[in-house]
Structure formats: structure tokens, C-alpha cells
Amino acid sequence: MSFLGSMDISSSALTAQRLRMDVVAENVANINTTRTAEGLPYRRRYVVFQQREPQSFTQALNSSIAGVAGSGVRVTEIGEDQAELKLEYNPSHPDANEFGYVEMPNVELAREMVDMMSATRSYEANITVLNSTKTMAMSALDIGRQ
């Protein structure tokens, strides 16, 4: 694996995990949103990752010759969770139905916190990889100067 290739892989992971953290933050921010612009309760969103393919034939050939399995990650979709909405009894709420129940978002705070922690740890791990790669490159330059 090339020096710049490992940095490219880590940077793609950083970008993807940052988007995942943004989506989790949006979910938490909308945990009590009973009416979106479409007039429906907010539905939890999630991020789908996929292995990023090399951009050109030459890159694919070089990757296969080098024995590199992949070239990073990309986000293919920000999906909407179709799980059932929660019903909460609150007859004084403006969005309550004729029985006094309000459809609440299908966002669970504990699940979102676990997703946020997972994304944060992955982000930190990729920062560590980038820093290690930078340190190795600097050491190689120092060896070359001596």
C-alpha cells in the first residue's frame, strides 16, 4: 500500500464518519419533532457506507498489483428508518389525533448515543492512522537527510 493511498483511505473514512455524526446529531435534535415540512413526524435517519472503488482503470490495476483490497469508504445513502412511530398520550398537543395520541419520532436517545460513540471512536482511530502515517513519513525524510 502506498503512503498516499493509506492517507486517502483514512481521509475518506474521516469524511464518512463526520457525515454519520452529523446525521446522529440531526436525529437527536429532532427527537421531539412531531411535524416536519411535509406535515409528518420526523423519522430517524441512518447512513449507509460502501467500499469506494478506484476512480480509474490504472488505479484499479495498481491496487490489485499492490494487493490492496479497497480504496476507502463512501456514503451511498442516507436512509430513513421505517420503524413504527411511537404513540404518546397527550390530548392537549396540537398534533394529537381524535383519541388524544400524538405520533412521536422513532428516535431512541440511547441508540443515537451508541451510534455517536461508535462514529467518534472510528473518527479518532482514523486520526491516529493519519498521525502515524505522517510520523513515518517524517522519519523517512529524516533518514534521507542524514
* Envelope shape: elongated
Strand content: 15-25%
Order of helices and strands: HEHEEEH
pLDDT < 50 runs, ≥5 residues: none
Average of the residue pLDDT scores:
88
Helix-strand category = alpha+beta
Please count the beta strands (DSSP E, at least 2 residues each): 4
Helix content: 40-55%
Please state how the strands of the largest beta sheet are arranged side by side.
Answer: 1-2
Largest sheet: 2 strands, antiparallel
Report how far the terminal alpha carbons are from each other. 26 Å
**Total helical segments:** 3
How much is the radius of gyration in Å? 22 Å
Describe the protein.
- With 146 residues, this protein is an alpha+beta fold.
- 51% of the residues lie in helices and 16% in strands.
- It has three helices and four strands.
- The strands form two sheets. It has a two-stranded antiparallel ribbon with strand order 1-2. The chain has a two-stranded antiparallel sheet with strand order 3-4.
- α1 runs antiparallel to α3.
- It is elongated, with a radius of gyration of 22 Å.
- It starts with a helix and ends with a helix.
- The mean pLDDT is 88.
